[in-house]
Amino acid sequence: MIPAKTASGHQVLKDRSVSLTPRQRAAFILIDGKRSVDDVLTATSAAGVTRADIELLFQLGVVAAGGTQPVTPSANDETPRHATAQERYTAAYPVAARLTAGLGLRGVRLNLAVEAAGSFEALRALAPKILDAVGTEKFAELDAALRGR
């Protein structure tokens, strides 16, 4: 199953109107309508996220089953398409959230800054700080998403 944030879930992400534990919040941030529950559990295993944490997000109504299937280009599509800023933000945000959440206590402020970044430009402005915190190897994935690759 591929969960996605609901409209109320997006609002909760912004205003924190629903109290979530750090584990639940880590899973909630990674739920993007593209990753399966198992993918989210794998990515947050170091934080101790369990299936029960994700089930609670469903019960709270902040996520629902749904999501999107990956779009594969047609064989006839020869024209390269450049990703828009919104598409790059959508791809880069979960990567940045995962990287900064993985920093533990030393990355709390940076993780909060990523959560508050509501645009591609804001997220791109945080990139140097994320690079400093996680190193070049881990940052490569975020760099590719920010560049639209």
Description of the structure:
- This protein is mostly helical and 149 residues long.
- It has 8 helices and 2 strands.
- It has a two-stranded antiparallel ribbon with strand order 1-2.
- Helix 5 runs parallel beside helix 7.
- The chain is globular.
State the distance separating the first and last CA atoms. 26 Å
Tally of DSSP helical segments? 8
Bin the strand percentage: under 5%
Strand order of the biggest β-sheet? 1-2
Q: Find the count of extended strands (DSSP E, 2+ residues).
A: 2
Q: Uncertain runs with pLDDT below 50, 5 residues or more?
A: 68-80
Shape: globular
Global mean pLDDT:
83
Features:
two-stranded antiparallel sheet; 149 residues; mainly alpha; globular; 8 helices; single chain
Summarize the structure.
This protein has about 150 residues and is mostly helical.
Topology:
Elements: E1 3-5, H1 7-15, H2 22-30, H3 37-43, H4 51-60, E2 63-65, H5 85-101, H6 108-116, H7 120-134, H8 136-147
Antiparallel strand pairs: 1-2
Helix pairs in contact: 2-4, 5-6, 5-7, 5-8, 7-8
